[in-house]
Structures are given as C-alpha cells and as structure tokens.
Amino acid sequence: MNALVALLMGLAYVAPPGPVNVETIRRGSATGFRGAFGLQLGALVGDLFYAALALLGVGALLPPTALRLGLAPLGAIVLVYLGYTALRDGVYGLRAVGACGSVIGGDASASMRRGVLAGIGISLANPFAVAFWLTVSGAVLPHMRGNVTTFLAAFFAGVLAWAVALPVLTWSCRAALHGRGFHCVSVACGAALVAFGVGVGSAVIFPGGTIAHALF
User: Fold this and answer.
1) What DSSP character marks residue 162?
2) Burial, 215: exposed, middle or buried (Cβ in 10 Å; 0-12, 13-18, 19+)?
C-alpha cells in the first residue's frame, strides 16, 4: 500500500502543467523523443538531489520559505531565458519562407545532452521542488521507518514512468505538425515559460500576492 501511494504521489508530482512539461513538449515537437526524454531525465536528477537533501534533514535546518525565495530569482531567470529562446526561434521560423523542421536544431545526441542540462537547471531552480521535498517529503520520510527505500523507489518509478510517457506522446504527435506547426508550438511554449518565470519572480517582489500563492 505504501508503494502504491508513493507511485501515485510521484505521478501527481510530475504530471501537472509546469515549466518542465512545457519545455518537454517544445523539445519533443522540435527534435523528437531524445530531446524531450533528455529534459525529463535532467529534471529527475534535480529531484534526486532535493530528495537527498530531504533525507539528510536539511528541511529541518533551513527555513523552506527562505530557500524558495532564495531560488526564485534564479528560477525566474532560467525560465524567462528559455521562454525568450523559444519565442525567438519560433517567431524567426514563422517569418522564414517555407520554414519547417527543428526549432532547436542539431543531431539527436546533442539535443539529448542539451535537454538533460536544461532539465537539471529547471529542476534545481524550481521553488516548487524545494517546497515539496523539504516540507511534504521532509515530513513524510521520517515516519516511513524501514520503508524509506521502498517509498523512494516507488515514487521515482512513477516519475520515471511519466518521464517516458510524455516524450513518447509528444513524439507520436510530432508527425501531425508540418511546417509552421513546429514554430507555433515553440511560440506557445515560449510564452508559457516566460509566464512561469514572471510568476516565480513575483514571489520575491510580492511574496503575499496571488501569483505567489498559486505557485507555492
């Protein structure tokens, strides 16, 4: 039962719309499975890092709110930069006559490497990840007694299942995009990433604001 709950918790953690999933869709539509899967793997590395901190009891030593607000400027910069890049490439592609194909460019291996690095950056700079691992999981893990390994294994099994499922879904839908479709996806995802970045940044300027409450 604990394993099933942890598996469902892992899916619930990664499935909601957010910057990682938005960027996964953008890269998947542009470069195929490897770019999208690389981004999900990078995000998984970031989650493993925060899970390790939770196991070490960092959440009890450092105020989670301070950590979230400390990461918010970095998260805002990363998300706005990725969003700007997506918007720039998408708009450029839409203006080009007969433009089609990859938004990001490069071979599959390079796309996967870039995806992994981007996923790590987004995950580590995501204040929501800090809030989850150093509060929710920090409160759950100490009470798991001898089942911490089982809990984490099932949780990350759910995360990994999503890390494979979303890129596969994006890849399977990629064939339906022709010409300008790739660049329209890039523009839409870029705008969403910029909006996420602005929302994260607002937590610093307006910590009690509506956007900050929605995020945290």
Assistant:
1) H
2) buried
List, for residues 89-113, the tens digit of each pLDDT value: 777 766 664 444 444 444 566 778 8
Contact indicator for 6, 150 with CB cutoff of 8 Å: yes
As a whole number of angstroms, the distance between CA 161 and CA 67 comes to 29
* pLDDT per position as a tens digit, 186-202: 788 778 878 877 876 67
Give residue 99's domain range. Answer: 2-215
Q: Where are the alpha helices (DSSP H) in the chain?
A: 2-14, 19-31, 33-55, 58-61, 64-95, 108-124, 127-131, 137-140, 148-174, 180-205, 210-215
The pTM for the full model equals: 0.73
Q: Which of 51, 46, 184 is nearest to 126 (CA)?
A: 46
Nearest to 157 by CA among 2, 19, 26: 2
Provide the domain count of the chain: 1
CB atoms within 10 A of CB 146: 6
DSSP 140-151: HGGGGGGGHHHH
